[in-house]
Every structure is written in C-alpha cells, then in structure tokens.
Amino acid sequence: MLNDLVNLFYPNNCGCCNNVLRKGEAHICLFCLSDLPRTNYIKIKENPVAKLFWGRVDLIYGFSTFNFSKKGKIQDLIHLLKYKEKTDIGFVLGKEVGKEINENIPPNTFDFIVPVPLHPKKQRLRGYNQSTFIAQGISEVCLVPVNEEIVVRVSNTVSQTKKNKHERWENVAEIFQLKNQENIVGKHILLVDDVVTTGSTLESCARKFLEVPNTKVSIAVLASGF
Ligand SMILES: [Zn+2]
After folding, report:
1. Which of 21, 50, 181, 224 could form a disulfide with 64 if both were Cys (CB 3.0 to 4.6 A apart)?
2. Do residues 52 and 200 make contact, with C-beta atoms less than 8 angstroms apart?
C-alpha cells in the first residue's frame, strides 16, 4: 500500500518498457536488460568496431557492447541518457559493459577509464557528460578508477569536409589536449563513449594518449550501429 503510494508520486518505471520496476531492479527492468541486442564484439578481436580504427590508431581492444538500431531499445535508452538527464541509465548500462570486460579480458588490464570529454560549453549546456556515467558503471564492476583529469576537449567539432587526407589528420588531432600527462606514462587507458559512428572523435582522443611514451589505449563504446 505504502509502496503503491510512493510509486504513484515517484513513479519508478523501466526506462525501456515503462513497466513498474520490481525489487532489486534499478532504472531498467531485468527483462529489458537481458533483451537488449548485444554485439558480443568483445569476444572477437577483428570485430567491426576494432576494424573501424585499423590504419588510424593502434588499439589493444576495441568493441561495442550493444547494437544500436533505429527505433530500437538501445536508441531509446541513449536518448534518455543524453537528453533527458537519465544519467542512472548510463551507470546501469556501463555495468553491463563492465561485466562483459570481466568475463573476457584479463583482470588488471586497464589502469584508467577515461570518458571522452565533451567541449566545456556543450557540457555546461547539457549539465553533464553522459559518458562519465557509463565509465562509472564500468568502474564499479571492474574496480578500475575513472580519470577525468588527463584530457580536455578544446574544440567542439571534427570538421572533415573538403579536406585532403593530411589536413583531415591535423584537424582530427587538434580537438583534445592532455594535462598531467606524466600520470599516464606506461599506462593502459580504456577510453569510453556512448556511441561510435565515424570514430573520428575517439581516434583523435586515442592519438593524444599515444603521444605519451609507452601508453596503450583500448576503446569501449556502449553501442554501435554496425
Ligand atoms: Zn523494461
């Protein structure tokens, strides 16, 4: 009875199917969580996300956890995460990425988890960086710290139109700057983003890390459309 009243005034529904959540469920019901389309790319070294970066930047691992299709559940969830302040959804889905990492990648592989930074202006507008919450979910499960103090975004857009290959490279390389780079010498960084499309932003950020001696970079994205 009390619970019903609480639900009436503070509805606690699944972000996917909108059903009332049961005890032990948080933000997404267990049915929807198990029903989300998974890529299982983490099990395949030469998967489409890893291949996207071939010849562009050297990664140790590259994978997405979920498949992003138009009008699919993952698209709805990412929309809530990015535009409706449902940051907990990022955390819950990040934990799924983390479980996959624990099952498929040796422990202590990564030293830091770094969410791809938004441009400060964009972050101020949105109020948060959605990838931070995904990173925190992974961190919770994998026990690897999130580090948001080593890279900043200095440009908002990756413009690639009407540029030759060389100019494109320069443009891509300029959107991030490192700080405290002595902290990542010899470290393996897991770079995290919500969605990968062209991969240009992730490429640019990964390149920056690889300018530091003996760093390694892997990329985990929540969802890819391929
Ligand atoms: Zn549901």
Report:
1. 224
2. no
